[in-house]
Design a protein that fits this description.
The complex is a heterodimer of chains A (about 260) and B (about 290). With about 260 residues, chain A is α/β, with parallel strands linked by helices. Chain A is built from eight helices and nine strands. The longest helix of chain A has 23 residues. Chain B is globular and about 70 Å long. The N terminus of chain B is likely disordered. The chains are: A alpha/beta (about 260), B mainly alpha (about 290).
């Protein structure tokens, strides 16, 4: 309820720092994400972007500072859907059973119709009764997204969900995610190391420095969210300009670290 | 590295696999059955040979004598019912019933204990040495204790089998529960699963293949312990029958009893394996 209140930020990180032992992985970072935004975190491998997402999901607690989702300390499984780099489907359940489990945990009726509906939203048909290993990797990741979408959480967190997929599948899933997010109007945080993916998906892109991850660039993406075909969007001059700017920031930051 | 890379690219394995796979297992299976039959025939021949050369049926009874005992113990002849008043199938049935009840109790106890050991840290610390201790004891060693406690009827036998069957299941379950994959546990928690929902929907299903291995082990141990359990007041029972036959030097009956135990054991293991394949289609898919 409270998350729908526009005056309240969906996510607010205040002075957040996270350490693993003596190593500072992230921070200090201040970041406010208004409701409805599609935020993409970009950075080289090991810059702490996944840690940042885990902090927002509530799987980790910050060493310093505070993390708030809808005004409260985040708790896993409450208020946020999560998609990992691997599908992480339960092989002892059918494809539909995986989606049904999410509905069950949320206390929603897990009818076959509802499950099919959710699977169709991510472009899957007639797979509900298949075993998880009988569908392709791309389809598995779609199921994982359907599972995360099953509950109408105000927040959707995605940790490099398409990194392990082939280029073609990745592009199709990016398009589908863009469509789904535009229609559902929930707040998304998407972690990636692909600049192209960031510009294509995000309404705002934050570039992180290499370890410890700090904000190097915070850029709104002014591209239209609807009404444009993916190819048209990618063909726009603004798209290329943004990609160049963000790409430069990512490269700049990683190389400066190396030369230092 | 280089060898795997330099594998001849001409023989592309991918299209070849689906063409060969429908035939290969069948051919392999037929071969396997033929091989096993051959081995059986050779064993039979060796047995017959050994019986004829030793000429001592008390030492090595001939296959024919054992076959004759199978008929004798399975029928009522001269007013005598089977062996010691019970047909072979009845002896076997009583033993199987003991194994079934004993393993069922042992497996249930092992499951509960194993889950608790896997989930509750301090309980594992306390119980692990005890379970290992019991596991190291030969069942016959604590049978005497059960006789003192529970007399010589069914109770001590069932206790023996239950206690013998419990440790393998408990150990396998505890290990598997502890080894629950973090990725899947996190996935469940991200969907809103609580502590017990995680155990029910992730930890236990993930542990099921290993639990099943533990169950097969447990049934095997119960099987091998039943003869020990039936050394005292074991008739009817296949162990009691073997024991009595040994006392009267009826080696053919002893051998027959061994066959009855071994063959039924094979059958039950096959049943368990079939159940396993049916219940755990995801085995090896993680």
């Amino acid at each position: 309820m409270s998350s729908a209140d526009p005056a309240r930020a969906a996510i607010r990180l205040t002075d957040v720092e996270h350490r693993y032992g003596d190593v500072t992985a992230v921070g200090p970072i201040d970041l406010t994400v208004p409701a409805g935004e599609f935020l993409v975190l970009v950075g080289a491998s090991g810059c702490g972007k996944s840690t940042l997402l885990r902090l927002i999901a509530g799987f980790e607690e910050p060493t310093f500072g505070s993390v708030r989702a809808a005004g409260e300390p985040p708790v896993p499984g409450r208020g946020a859907g999560l998609v990992f780099q691997q599908p992480r489907l339960f092989p002892w359940r059918s494809v539909g059973g995986n989606v049904a489990l999410a509905l069950k945990y949320a206390g929603l009726p897990a009818t076959p119709e509802r499950v099919d509906e959710l699977l169709e939203r991510v472009g899957l048909r007639d797979v509900a009764r298949r075993r998880t290993w009988q569908i392709s990797g791309g389809q598995q990741q779609r199921v994982a997204i359907a599972r995360a979408l099953a509950v109408e959480n105000p927040l959707l967190l995605l940790d490099e969900p398409f990194a392990a997929l082939d280029a073609l599948t990745r592009e199709r899933l990016q398009e589908d995610l863009r469509r789904v997010s535009a229609s559902s109007n929930r707040t998304c945080v998407f972690v990636t190391h692909s600049v192209d993916e960031a510009v294509f998906l995000g309404s705002r892109v934050v570039v992180l420095t290499p370890r410890p991850g700090r904000i190097a660039l915070d850029l709104p993406i002014g591209l239209p969210r609807t009404g444009l075909a993916p190819d048209e969007l990618r063909g726009r001059p603004e798209f290329a300009a943004l990609r160049a700017e963000i790409g430069a920031a990512v490269r700049d930051r990683s190389s400066s670290e190396v030369s230092a | 590295m280089t060898t795997s890379l330099s594998a001849p690219p001409v023989v592309s394995t991918e299209p070849a696999l689906p063409r060969r796979s429908p035939l290969a297992p069948q051919g392999g299976r037929r071969r396997r059955v033929a091989l096993r039959l051959l081995a059986l025939v050779i064993l039979y021949g060796l047995w017959e040979l050994a019986a004829r050369t030793t000429r001592n049926p008390t030492f090595i009874p001939s296959p024919g004598a054992v076959w004759h005992q199978l008929i004798q113990t399975s029928t009522v002849h001269d007013g005598v019912r089977g062996y010691s008043g019970h047909l072979l199938i009845e002896h076997l049935g009583v033993s199987l019933r003991r194994i079934l009840i004993g393993s069922a109790i042992g497996v249930a106890g092992g499951l509960v204990l194993g889950v608790l050991m896997g989930v509750v840290g301090w309980l594992r610390v306390v119980t692990e040495p005890v379970v290992t201790f019991v596991r190291a004891l030969p069942p016959l060693a604590y049978f005497s204790l059960f006789i003192i406690w529970f007399g010589i009827d069914e109770t001590p036998k069932l206790w023996l089998l239950s206690i013998a069957a419990l440790p393998p299941v408990a150990v396998a379950t505890a290990a598997a529960v502890q080894g629950a994959p973090t990725g899947l546990v996190e996935a469940a928690r991200a969907l809103g699963a609580g502590r017990w929902a995680v155990i029910r929907d992730v930890t236990l299903p993930h542990a099921l293949p290993e639990i099943f291995t533990g169950i097969r082990l447990a049934v095997g141990i119960a099987y091998s312990s039943v003869v020990a359990a039936e050394t005292i007041n074991g008739v009817p029972g296949i162990g009691g029958m073997v024991r009595d036959a040994q006392r009267y030097s009826q080696t053919d009956v002893v051998v027959l009893g061994l066959f009855a135990i071994g063959l039924s054991g094979l059958l039950i293991d096959a049943l368990l394996r079939t159940a396993e394949n049916r219940l755990i289609p995801w085995r090896g898919r993680l």
